[in-house]
Amino acid sequence: MPDDEKRKPIIHVIPAKRHFKRMRVALYCRVSTQMERQLHSLSAQMDFEKEDILENPAWEYVGTYTDIKSGRTISSRPGFQSLLADCEAGKIDMIYTKSISRFGRNCVDFLVTLRRLKELKIDVFFYNERTHLLSQAGELLLTLHAGVAQAESENKSENIKWGLRRSTMDPDSPAFSRRCYGYDRNEEEGLILNIAEARIVLKIFDWYEQGWSIVRIKKELEALKVPSPTGKKKWPVKTIENILTNEKYTGTSVYGETESADFPSTKRKARDPFEVHRSLNHHLPIIHERRFKRIQKLKAKRSNIEVDEHGNKLRKSTHYSSKRAVTRAKKTTKPEN
Question: What does residue 27 show for φ and ψ, rounded to 5 degrees?
Fold first, then answer.
C-alpha cells in the first residue's frame, strides 16, 4: 500500500468528567411538649422529611437536629443551637424544615437568624411554604409568613390564658388539682396524700423551723438518699425553697399567682393579688396554716434580700447564720438546774 494511502489515525477527544458536588442538607424538627401526640408528630416529621432528602440525588443528608421546646426563643433550644454552630463551622449547605413555625415563632429572632445564614450563603428550605431563603423573593416572603406565625401564637396564648381564668372561677376546677410533691392525683378524689413524700415535706418544715439553712436541708436529704421530686439524687435549692413557700401544703390550692409575660418572652410575672384564685379546704393539709405563716415570717427574716418602697431588691447589710440560729435554739431550750 502506497504511503499516501496509509490510514490516518483518528483522535477521539474524551471530555473531562465534571466533579459534581452534592449539597449537604441538615434536617431540623421541633415540637413544643413531651405529650405523646406531639412526640408522634416529631417522629413523623423526621421520617417523611429525611426520606425526601435521601431521594434527591443532588442532596447529601448530613444529620437531623431536634428540639422538644417552645419556639418562642432560640437560646433555649439546644438542637437549634447545635445546628447553627455546625452552619458556622461550614458543615452544612442547606437546612430543610417543615415550616416557619417549626423554625421559630419569634419574628425578630427568626429574621436575625435568617440574615446570618444568608451571610454564610446557607439556604433554608421550608417545605409547607415551598420557599427557599436564597431565592429572589425568599426573605420578603418569609418575613410575611413569620409575622403571621407570631400573630397566631399570640392569639393562641391569650385564648389559653382566658380559658384558664374562666375555669378557675369554679373551686372544683382541675386547675386546682395539679400535683405537687407530697400529693398524688386521683381522677375521682383530686389530690390525695402520698404518705412517704408527705413525711419528707414535714421534715423539711421541721428542719427549717429548727434553724437549719436550705443548703443544710439539701445535704441532709441527699445523705439520706431521698430522691428529689423528679427522681434524681441531687436536690436543687430552688426545689426546697418552693416546698417551703407552697400554700398547697395547708390544704388551700392557689392558681394564678404568676402568669407568662407578654409574647414572645418566656419569663413569668406576678399577677394582681385580686386576680389570684383560691380553693379553700381543697384537699387534706400536710402543714397547719398557722405554722405555714410562721415559716414565711422566718424566711423573710432570714433572707439576705429585702424590697424597698419602690419594689427594688436590695441586699441586707447583715446575713443569716444557721449555725448561730441552732446554737441560740439549743440555749433557749436548755433545762435549768
Answer: -100, 135
What b/e sequence results for 201-220 when a residue is b if at least 16 CB atoms lie within 10 Å of its CB, and e otherwise? beebbebbeebbbbeebbee
Q: Cα separation of 239 and 181, whole Å?
A: 10
Range of 80's domain? 23-154
Determine, yes or no, domain membership for 11.
no
- Single pTM value for the model: 0.47
Longest Cα–Cα distance in the chain:
143
Task: Quote the distance between the C-alpha of residue 113 and its chain's center.
Answer: 20
Evaluate whether 150 touches 263 at the Cβ level (below 8 Å).
yes
Instruction: Compute the distance between CA of residue 327 and CA of residue 322 in angstroms, rounded to an integer.
Output: 9
To the nearest whole percent, how much of the chain has pLDDT over 70?
Answer: 62
In a domain, 119, yes or no: yes
Q: For residue 188, tell me if it sits in a domain.
A: yes
State the virtual CA torsion across 290, 293, 299, 300 in degrees, nearest 10: -140
In this structure, are 232 and 137 located in the same domain? Answer: no
Residues 254 and 219 in one domain: yes
Q: How many CB atoms lie within 10 A of CB 279?
A: 21
Q: How many domains in the chain?
A: 2
Cα angle at 43 between 42 and 47, to 5 degrees? Answer: 120
Question: What is the domain-level CATH number for residue 103?
Answer: 3.40.50.1390
Q: For 6-28, how does the pLDDT look when each residue is reduced to its tens digit (9 = 90+)?
A: 666 666 566 655 556 899 999 99
